[in-house]
Amino acid sequence: MSDRSAANLARTWVRHADFLLDQVEDRTADVAIGNPPYIRYDDLDDDTAATYRATWSSMKGRGDIYVGFIERSLAMLKPGGRVGFICADRWMRNQYGAGLRGLVAERYAVEHVWTMHDVDAFESEVSAYPAITVLANRRQGSAVVADTTAEFSKSSASALVKWSGDESLTDFTDVGVQAHRLPHWFAGDDLWPTGSPARLALVELLTDRFGSLHDPETGTKVSIGVATGNDRAYVTKNPKAAEADRMLPLAMRRDLMSGTFDWQGNYLVNPWDVDGNLVDLADYPRMAEHFAGHPELKQRFVARNNPNRWHRTIDKVHADLTAQPKLLLQDMKAHIHPVLEPGGFYPHHNLYYVVSTTWDMEVLGGLLLSRVAQAFIEAYCVRMRGGTLRFQAQYLKKIRVPGPESISDDLAGRLRTAFADRDVDAATVAAAEAYGIDPAAYDVLTSSDTEE
User: The Type II methyltransferase M.TaqI-like domain covers which part of the protein (predicted)?
Assistant: First the structure.
């Protein structure tokens, strides 16, 4: 081809413009392929950021403009068209990607997600958590998930492409890659799980078959303890810091360290009555004196916003929670570690809790101690350096459990014993039986997914 022909084609084919603002008629493309730019919204000037957000509904929170590039490319697709991008997969796991996840779930299909975190996917070395993601303008069908290592090569990629084209095939292994075909993708704008293809297949299977741990129908609730806004003022080991009915025994992280609940003597100086109303300090002179010794309480935003209620904690205290048996979990730990608090204590905000009106809490504790529960947490939660997991309520609610009525007396006894003995292996064997997991899937549970 002559230079002149090449220049003419370039002028015809290439447009130099802002892809997120340039006017292009929707549904004009059969295929969109790209590696979009990574620019945080915070790095844009205010006018540009505001215009992008007003134009593309998925660009919310403190995200990255590649989210808008994906939405724009999807909007251009003809029926049956596809978007294939290699870019960071963080939008699948973070809150700022919720709008895009919801859009994809409602109107498009996920066809491929090939995770390539350890592959030199770009000419220069970058820490971008890349993945090849293919989305299509059609109804959701099966989806291929692949997890690669540094050994992933051109020949492995070619073999994976060939395998992906045969809908009758479920599993694939080659040098540097493992893949699995899921019957469908995950619904809604919730976080999309991560992990090995086999682990994702198990999570999807259990998600389809069982209800959430947090379920109003079983009277089971997952939540977080009380945030005070100033622990120095509200948390004390002095039982006489205020009037006796204002001193609420408080469950804290150190009470769980041994695997059984061992109260270390902390109290919450509680400004709330049994009906959830803020008490009048004039009725409690000792508590008033205690709070007066912490003048910083009046400097908090919540106090300045309502000076007459300056002595309130950030969260209300719900009196009926105190007496209930609770499974308590630390916020950050490498493995799920539920501990039974038999009742009489209120959880602090560094603890998450599970209460239920239908479950035997020791049986449920056995299920949560198992590697089945661990698999859900690893699939959804943020992993910190050193392998520490964040056990937040949003991730705990992702755990699926069988109905309490489906657990036989014998199985309940085994789960109860495993929980009391802190025996993860026994809990996992019993839980696998409760979930109806076959031996092949059980092998997936015993091999941990690790990713920093």
Answer: 24-122
Q: Please give the structure tokens belonging to residue 14.
A: 């290439």
Strands 389-390 and 332-333: antiparallel
Question: What is the torsional sign of CA 163, 164, 166, 168?
Answer: positive
pTM: 0.79
Cα separation, 327 vs 220, whole angstroms? 11
277-300 in b/e burial notation, b at 16+ Cβ within 10 A? ebbeeeebeebeebbeeeeebeee
For residue 450, the model assigns a pLDDT of 45
Determine the 3-state secondary structure of 417 from DSSP.
helix
Q: DSSP 3-state assignment of 294?
A: coil
Place of tokens 């009106």: 357
- Token pair in block for residue 181: 């075909």
Residue 27 confidence class, pLDDT cut points 50, 70, 90:
low
Contacts 24+ apart (CB under 8 A), 210-217: 210/400, 210/401, 210/402, 210/435, 211/400, 211/401, 211/403, 212/397, 212/398, 212/399, 212/400, 212/401, 213/354, 213/368, 213/396, 213/397, 213/399, 213/400, 213/401, 214/393, 214/396, 214/397
Q: Which CATH fold topology does 15-192 show?
A: Rossmann fold (3.40.50)
Two domains, one topology: 15-192 and 216-226+317-446: no
Phi, psi of 48 (to 5 degrees): -65, -45
Domain chopping of the chain, boundaries:
15-192, 216-226+317-446
Q: Which two tokens stand for residue 287?
A: 């508590």
Q: Which residues contact 187 (CB under 8 A, 6 or more apart)?
A: 105
Locate 268 and state its tokens: 């919450």
Mean pLDDT for all residues in the chain: 90
16/49: higher pLDDT: 49
- CB proximity list for 24: less than 8 A, separation 6 or greater: 76
Query: What's the length of the chain?
Result: 452
87-98 pLDDT, tens per residue? 988 899 888 999
> What's the pLDDT tens digit per position in 246-262?
999 999 999 999 999 99
End-to-end CA distance of the chain: 49
Architecture of the domain spanning 216-226+317-446: Alpha-Beta Complex (3.90)
For 44, 90, 209, 226, 278, the CA distances from 93, given in Å and listed in that order, are 23, 5, 23, 26, 38
